[in-house]
Structure formats: C-alpha cells, structure tokens
C-alpha cells in the first residue's frame, strides 16, 4: 500500500498496449469495501477502521462476484487489487488471486500488500501470472520478519517488488533492506505526502531507487492522454466503474455492461497526478516502456534501474 501515492501477447503482461483496443486487454484496479488493516502507519492516507463481521462478509461477497465476472470474460484481463486495508490476511483475497492466476485469459493477478501474512498459499498459484507489490513499513514490523517473507517469496519463485515511504526516519532501514535483497528485486521509494525534498535528500533516495524522480514531484496531467478510461479502469465493490481511483466520474457498471460503451481514449481531467497507480498510465511519461512486463506489480525492466 504505501503512501500517495494486457494483451496482444501474454508475454507482455502489464506492458505496452497503446495499439490495443480495450477488449484486446482490459486492466482493472479493484478496490472493494475492505478497510481494516493490521498496521497503523501514521503516514498512510488510507482509511483505518475495524471492519465488522457484516462488513467483512460484504467484502467477501463483492470480491467473489468480481472474480466470477472475470471468469466469464473471453478477452484478456489483468487485475490489481488495491485495498484500503490489508487484503492478504483475508482468505478470500488469497483464494481470489490463486483462482485468477489459473484463468487462461488472465494475464496478471496482483495485489498491494504489507506482506504481514505468510506466503505459502502462493504455491497453489500459477506463478507465471501472480505478482505482489509489497511495502515495508519500519516501525510496524521487525526488519527480519519482513525479510523472511521476501525470502519465502524468492524460494517459491514469486514475482514481487518491495518499497518504502521516503521519510527521513526510514532511510537507514531502507538501506539495510536494499543490502539484504538480491539485486534483481526492485526496491521502489514513494515520496512522502506533501514533502518537499532537497536535492541532497532526493539523491539519497535515488541511490536506492533510480526511478525516485518519478515520485518526487506531482505530475502535471490535465489534458494529457492517459490509458485510464480506455484500457484501464477502476472498479469498486458494487461494480461501479470509473476511469481511475482519483477521478470520481462514473463510466457505468461492470456487471450490467454499461461501462463498455464509455471506454475511449481521453485526456486526464485533473491538474496533477501524484500516485504511481495513476501516473504510470499517463502516456507522455513513457512508463509502460520503463515497466514493460511489470506495470501492475511495479517491476521495471532491469536495465532501467541500473
């Protein structure tokens, strides 16, 4: 989760689809009603609450309905779960990812997670499709416990990225994490909400994440072409479709199909976009080339981080 912030060929999962029509490949950012989290990070912008049993049942039913819808499609689909809280502590999110990964038309099934839950369940998934976007939260989990989870993922052969929020008090922990991880595991850094970084501070974070410059400043986006609303959509638990999480205008509903006639290339209506799950789809930034094959799980081509 962190802060602030497929398909002419399946081998291009999460890659560049500028020449594809929406039904060639549809990327879905799914966020159901789940809002509970086992962490309580003070810098996290996501809502924090304890979900009641009724709320958890509603979230489970919504997710199962969504997975059922995906199973009925005939065109390629990629899914990134972006819950307000932590999904992988819930059995239905783990099962959803396993089930999605075994659907032949699903190109990628990914989730944002704090990696607090053990990862043995990934052994049941098709690892050519599963991927995790993981975040390390110093102060919420001992570093060795988080690293143990990463080692488990490496042992199972799961694709994953690791990231931290770029706060001064996290820098030493992030350096130790980078030193402990294999070189091929990408460590990303999210700029902290509202923080203005000096060049010296930015240089320190860029040593860890050569792509930190994309997160350092909000991106001017109004009027710029963006894939959201065309080949990328946001879906909530009721099936309401929007172009992305950050633009409230409704395009229709997933389950009655009304969203489909509204899928069209369109410019961004917002002045700025400062969250990776948003600006990665801005066409002028060229990030589908930088993250070719790993857009949803935030894994760039190795050549771009050297």
Automatic annotation (TrEMBL):
Can you name the source organism? Actinomadura rubrobrunea
Q: What is this protein called?
A: Radical SAM protein
User: SUPFAM superfamilies from the entry?
Assistant: Radical SAM enzymes
């Amino acid at each position: 989760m962190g802060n602030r912030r497929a398909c002419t060929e399946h081998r291009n999962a999460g890659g560049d689809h500028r020449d594809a029509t929406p039904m060639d490949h549809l990327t879905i950012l799914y966020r159901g009603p789940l809002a509970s989290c086992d962490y309580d990070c003070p810098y996290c912008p996501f809502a924090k609450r304890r979900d009641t049993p009724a709320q958890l049942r509603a979230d489970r039913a919504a997710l199962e309905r969504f997975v059922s819808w995906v199973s009925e499609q005939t065109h390629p689909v990629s899914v990134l779960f972006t819950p307000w809280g932590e999904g992988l502590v819930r059995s239905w999110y783990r099962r959803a990812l396993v089930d999605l990964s075994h659907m032949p038309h699903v190109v990628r099934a990914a989730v944002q997670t704090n990696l607090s839950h053990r990862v043995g369940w990934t052994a049941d998934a098709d690892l050519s499709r599963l991927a995790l976007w993981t975040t390390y939260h110093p102060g919420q989990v001992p570093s060795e416990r988080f690293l143990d989870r990463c080692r488990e993922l490496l042992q199972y052969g799961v694709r994953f990225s690791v990231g931290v929020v770029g706060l001064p008090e996290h820098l030493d922990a992030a350096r130790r994490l980078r030193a402990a991880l294999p070189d091929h595991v990408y460590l990303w850094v999210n700029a902290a909400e509202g923080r203005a970084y000096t060049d010296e501070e930015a240089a320190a974070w860029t040593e860890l994440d050569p792509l930190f410059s994309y997160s350092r400043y909000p991106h001017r986006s109004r009027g710029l072409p963006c894939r959201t609303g065309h080949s990328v959509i946001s879906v909530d638990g009721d099936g309401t479709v929007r172009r992305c999480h950050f633009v409230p205008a409704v395009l229709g509903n997933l389950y009655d199909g009304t969203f489909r006639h509204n899928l069209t290339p369109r410019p961004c209506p917002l002045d700025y976009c400062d969250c990776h799950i948003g600006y990665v789809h801005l066409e002028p930034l060229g990030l589908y080339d930088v993250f070719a094959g790993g857009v949803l799980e935030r894994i760039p081509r190795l050549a771009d981080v050297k």
